[in-house]
């Protein structure tokens, strides 16, 4: 069962490698749009005691990004493969158990969610390093 689960997980990782640019762009654009609209747009003048609204909303945006990436990796992918590509029937006809198929898809969704949230957290650090190399602080660059 472990090898069957790993096989399904490996298949999803190969598909991720083929679509990496679109996945990475999607996982970066979505949190950035939420940050621009809710963080800097609506919450510009909102304060919660000693913390700003931006400090309050950023963890939620990262969690939302991870959940969307995980759901899109598993739910949408399974529905498309079931309805259009008919690969779900091929998996069910293969000598692997249904639980291996489910666990492999769950692990791939977890990996995509972790990668999406990690890239969402590391992107501002990367921007800050670029702005520092350019001679200005992060807030002066924008």
TrEMBL record:
Transmembrane segments: 20-40, 52-71
Keyword Ion transport found: no
Gene Ontology CC terms: plasma membrane
Domain of life: Bacteria
Keyword check for Endoplasmic reticulum: no
Keywords: Membrane, Transmembrane, Transmembrane helix
Protein name, entry field: ABC-2 type transporter (Part 1)
Protein's organism: Syntrophaceticus schinkii
Top-level taxonomy: Bacteria, Bacillati, Bacillota, Clostridia, Thermoanaerobacterales
